[in-house]
Write a structure and sequence with these properties.
Layout: E1 2-9, E2 19-34, E3 38-49, E4 67-75, E5 83-90, E6 112-120, E7 124-134, E8 145-154, E9 159-168, E10 181-194, E11 197-212, E12 218-234, E13 242-250, E14 260-261, E15 289-298, E16 304-320, E17 328-342, E18 349-359, H1 361-364, E19 372-380
Parallel strand pairs: 12-14
Antiparallel strand pairs: 1-2, 1-19, 2-3, 3-4, 4-5, 5-6, 6-7, 7-8, 8-9, 9-10, 10-11, 11-12, 12-13, 13-15, 15-16, 16-17, 17-18, 18-19
Length: 384
Amino acid sequence: IRARDQASDKSFDTTYSTDNFSELRTRVGIAGTVNDNAHIYIQFQDSRVAGEEAGTSGGLKGTNEVDLHQGYIKLDNIFGEGWGGMAGRFEFVKGNHRVFGNVGWSQTGRAWDGGTFWYKNDDFEITAFSLKVLELRDITFNRDIDIFGLYSTLNKLNLDLFAFLEYDADTLGYGPDINPLTRINLGMYYYRQHEQFDFVMNGAIQVGTIGVPIPDTSEIDISAFMFTFEGGYKFEGDNNARVAIGVDYSSGDDGEDETKYKAYTNSYYTGHKFRGYMDYFLGSNQAGLIDIMFRAKLDPTPGWTLKGDLHYFTTAVDYISDLDGTTETKDVGMEFDFSVSTTRVAGVDLVAGASVFMPKEDWVGMDDPEVGFWAYTQAIVTIK
């Protein structure tokens, strides 16, 4: 069970008031194993904002919105040792969540319908996966959206390599043999720890085509990329102090070449983990985004942790100012996130945090914008 209170004033407009609300997420999971090989897992989830259900006044009644978050069959040994697979509905997390993440901060989280098949040994693991984005069951022609891919982990190199295809088969409203999306993603994830230093890198390129609907009836080539790097240093001592610097770069499209789309699409990552806790940049921006960050962490006393992140945001290519409609700029703003967490209260994980965002006038389209503010408290109790 996770209970969270939030105070949010992210509009940059002094005429708006602070939004205060409480959230509750409840998950119940059931696991079972047959013959040390076949596993099942069923996880139900209810997510709600306190007071939002009709009829909750006085606690008389509410709307039942419990749903299946995960429900899958998993086999450890199909053809022999190392060969396994899974089918059903499941969270699909790879690397450090930068490409495929479960968005755990979200009230619902991300889970997929599909299947995976893998082979693994001490040196490497390779997984084939098929994920269903949209199923329309059209009896006339295929209009579904699917993902097909391979993901490999090379254990001795601390390196992951992946390739996957996003395919939208719905040609309704497009010309003959033109699909809305045929996008290939090729990329890597690397992690290394050496003595007191640690390094994390992600990289991906996107190629393929985006369909242009009728009346133009054409295709645009995709040529986009993403790169991230974070380097950290952990100090000696009992305080577990760590500092890190990093950059998160997603390419943008300046519109100068009408035959190519150069903006990287962040489709399935856990954005809250990377681009500031205020979540201004969860989606994809045609101008791209550059996030230069500095992070620090400290355990001042056993059971307590302090964290602070500083983000400096710009776009990858110039955008037209929302303030005057003519100025070209890359300026976006700065965000500072601070949190304190503790495990000193037995049985519960407690955390509180506050963030501020200092925007540029061109980005928000207003003179002298107010600083954005957001704060939260959260408690999680898990029983296994």
